[in-house]
Amino acid sequence: MKIVSDKTAELHKRSEKAKAMGGPERVAAQKKAGKLTARERLDALLDEDSFQELDLLRHTRASEFGLAEKDIPADGVVTGMGRVHGRNVCVFSQDFTVLGGSLGLAHAEKICKVMDLGLESGVPVIGLCDSGGARIQEGVDALGGYAEIFYRNVQASGRIPQISAILGPCAGGAVYSPAITDFIFMVKDTSHMFITGPEVIRAATGEECDFETLGGVEAHSTRSGVCHFVANSEHDCFRQIQELLEFLPQNCFDAVKPRPSGDDPNRESAVLDRIAHSDPKRPYSVHEVIRELADERSFFEVHAGFARNIVVGFIRLGGRAVGVVANNPQHLSGALNISASEKGARFVRCCDAFNIPILTLVDVPGYWPGVEQEHGGIIRKGAKLLYAYCQATVPKVTVVLKKAYGGAYDVMSSKHVRGDLNFAWPCAEIAVMGPQGAVNILFAREIRAAAKPEERRKQLVDDYTKQFSNPYLAAQRGYIDEVIEARRTRSKVANAFRFLKDKKTPRVEKKHGNIPL
Predict the structure, then answer these.
(1) How far is it, in rounded angstroms, from Cα 479 to Cα 398?
(2) Mean model confidence pLDDT for the chain
(3) Residue range 84-106: average pLDDT?
(4) Where are the domains of the chain?
(5) Which top CATH class is 270-432+470-500?
(6) pLDDT at position 199, please?
(7) CA-CA distance, 293 to 489, in Å (whole number)?
(8) Which residue out of 225, 305, 407, 437 is catalytically annotated?
(9) In the chain, fewer beta carbons within 10 Å around the N or the C end?
(10) Residues 201-245 pLDDT 10s
(11) Is 173 an annotated catalytic residue?
């Protein structure tokens, strides 16, 4: 027989009140907006019955502006620890039904507690964000709470994975914490991020905009690059988070767990042969190349809508997780520009931080030209990708598929920036620039003096292509370790990563480098 004492009854009463969130009306409003409640989100994300809540009865100490009389269940955020596919994680889920999910000092301290727990225990931290921003009634205490979270984000960066899901509004100081985390998810129609809202912008600058055009999914997944993953629903978002975690370790001292695969590492590909023999002027799908190399032809793309001239994401190769960086000839001919350089650099640094080997697939004609790029800082911002590859010490395997011209050849994990094993297809062209441009510079006078300039130009281009636009000169110099048949790329790359599995690279002793931010 279960005995319930007065004290136990009091505990149940307080707990049930705190778990009631903002009450039936506000919960109904949350549902009407197409959003799950804070607690439903945790149920959808975490393994069944794995959530252990912390600080359920925590409450603000502030009393100004009527806060002393207000009921603020769980202070507007649910925090604790749980499991995702059996792996321990720390989580917080902001509750928009309680004061709009606004952040006060106790709210922030609850988040800080699970962040500290995640850092000390070496487990990922996942934040489910749905907040109107700082709790105005708490003034500088709310601002201080945000800063405490930011500080912890930075201390945890590169040590444990940090994932943010934007599941409602995220405004003002609330956007900085997600911006420091490793990956940001947004949900179509319900997620918004911005520093200042439409009304403030209208008052300050006269510009007209709404929530969606200013800080919706389309804006941040395709233009700003803030958002890494787009979900069609909250349940889809949680499924994607679960899939992402399969490619990440618990912390920087751990490795991603291998997964058994029935896909033969030595599988050959007629598709890759077809692509290798296709017209070099005709773009092809680099996604098709990536899938031909991957176990079960499965590719988990990151940042899919942003800077589409470079493709990044995760595959498994022989059961092991590998990060992929690939130029995409279907967009801007695969050239590097500011956005692509920053996208690639961030991904390379993330892989390096968490011991994930990097496969680089090269088909790059150079850097994208233009006044806008130069004035936008392509020199400084383009150098970020170079810096990231030079700094990375994880196993790095490179395959030059077709073009590799100019400085972009150097940047894309070439042997010179310490690519470990570098391969090239027979159709690869490695040179300072393309044949047309090179001939126009080297033989300008000869072409002008020729009786038939265009015929002479064509002949010179053909001669230059045969002599320089191929992988063999680079192979003779040792810059390409092996010229390989395209159909055998999967087996060559899988074997390379298998060999490099225990690679160790000593670091230069210093406090830290100064990446050209």
Answers:
(1) 11
(2) 93
(3) 93
(4) 6-245, 270-432+470-500, 435-468
(5) alpha beta
(6) 87
(7) 7
(8) 407
(9) N
(10) 988 998 999 889 999 999 999 999 999 999 999 999 999 999 999
(11) yes
Q: State whether the Cα torsion 330-331-336-339 is positive or negative.
A: negative
Say whether 270-432+470-500 and 6-245 share the same fold: yes
Is 434 designated active site?
Answer: no
Residue type, 287: H
77-84/52-54 β-pairing: antiparallel
pLDDT at 68 over 70: no
Those residues with Cβ within 8 angstroms of residue 498's Cβ, 6 or more apart along the chain or in another chain: 318
* Catalytic site residue from 100, 168, 172, 419: 172
Q: List C-alpha distances in Å: 78 to 19, 107, 261, 321, 389.
A: 9, 9, 38, 32, 39
Catalytic residue, from 408, 428, 486, 496: name it. Answer: 408
What is the CATH code of the structural domain delimited by 6-245?
Answer: 3.90.226.10
Is residue 108 flagged as an active site residue? no
455: pLDDT strictly greater than 90: no
Token pair of 486 as six digits: 């395209």
The number of beta carbons lying within 10 Å of the beta carbon of residue 61 is 13
Nearest CA among 493, 257, 491 for reference residue 355 = 257
Torsion of CA 453, 459, 460, 465, to 10 degrees: 150
> Could you say which of 168, 173, 216, 313 is catalytic?
173
